[in-house]
Write a structure and sequence with these properties.
This protein is of the alpha/beta class. Helix content is 45%, strand content 18%. It has a single domain, classed as Alpha/Beta hydrolase fold, catalytic domain (Rossmann fold, 3-Layer(aba) Sandwich). Strands 1-2-4-3-5-6-7-8 form an eight-stranded mixed β-sheet, with helices on both faces. The longest helix has 17 residues.
Length: 261
């Protein structure tokens, strides 16, 4: 395990490939950096330096209970990349990771060469959504991850995608409840990133699974319509994790984005 001490925590991360072209990928909830393994292998082999890290509260990074707002995650990413001596990079994220990416675009757009917004959405949390997220955080602290993981697996991964489903289930079952709950409470206070979308000037890929129930295609179209010059790709036959369910199609879309940066 490779670790870095930044912002008062330890972050577990992978740094694979070489060169000046850097791709940084941010995982979603309640996963860890291993969700990006097909992309790491493909793009590190294609000449990119690929960085994937466990967000605080997940995987091999420090678990910080309480509330972890999206700006804290974004600051951790910036600090890690500064620690690694990386100034400019292409940045991508899925689901919660995509919202963290939008926060990064708000905080430090000058460092970003390109963006990947996968299976995510920009709108603010609703009052009902805040209640649901806080209630779920309470449940995870009370019961652990297993019941929740079993319930939502086939919303994360389409039922016909059996092999990636096993990986996704393992990540969810292994996620630390305290870290996942803190992230949920932070996302309950999520701001509206719609205005940020209009400020993006770098090449941007908006990608979504055709069968995603959490962030439907309409959410992807909403972002695509507001990011000038962005590309929209709908991955057929995938749900919320197209990078694992349909890695070849996902990687092809990302490769086209990288060619523009």
């Amino acid at each position: 395990m490779t670790t870095a001490n930044v912002n008062g925590i330890t972050i577990g991360y992978d740094d694979e490939g070489t060169g000046d072209d850097v791709l940084v990928l941010v995982h979603g909830h309640p996963f860890d950096r291993s969700m990006w393994r097909p992309q790491v292998e493909h793009f590190a082999g294609a000449g990119w330096r690929v960085i994937t890290a466990d967000l605080r509260g997940y995987g091999e990074s420090t678990v910080v209970p309480g509330i972890t707002p999206l700006p804290v995650f974004a600051d951790d990413i910036a600090a890690l990349l500064t620690h690694l001596g990386i100034d400019a990079f292409v940045l991508g994220g899925l689901s919660m990771g995509g919202q963290i990416v939008m926060e990064c675009a708000r905080q430090f757009p000058q460092r970003i060469r390109g963006l990947i917004l996968a299976d995510t959405f920009a709108q603010p949390e609703t009052p009902q959504g805040r209640q649901i997220r806080n209630d779920m955080a309470d449940r995870l602290l009370r019961e652990g991850m297993s019941g929740y993981a079993d319930e939502v697996l086939w919303k994360m991964v389409a039922p016909h995608n059996i092999a990636p489903g096993e990986h996704v289930a393992r990540m969810m079952h292994n996620a630390p409840p305290e870290g996942a709950a803190a992230a949920l409470r932070g996302r309950a206070e999520r701001p509206d990133y719609t205005a940020v979308l209009g400020t993006i000037t770098v090449p941007t890929l908006v990608v979504v699974g055709s069968d995603d129930e959490y962030t439907p295609v309409e959410d992807a179209k909403y972002m695509h319509d507001r990011v000038p010059g962005s590309t929209l790709v709908v991955v057929d036959g995938a749900a919320h994790m197209p990078n694992l369910e349909r890695p070849e199609e996902f990687n092809r879309a990302v490769a086209e984005l990288l060619a523009q940066t």
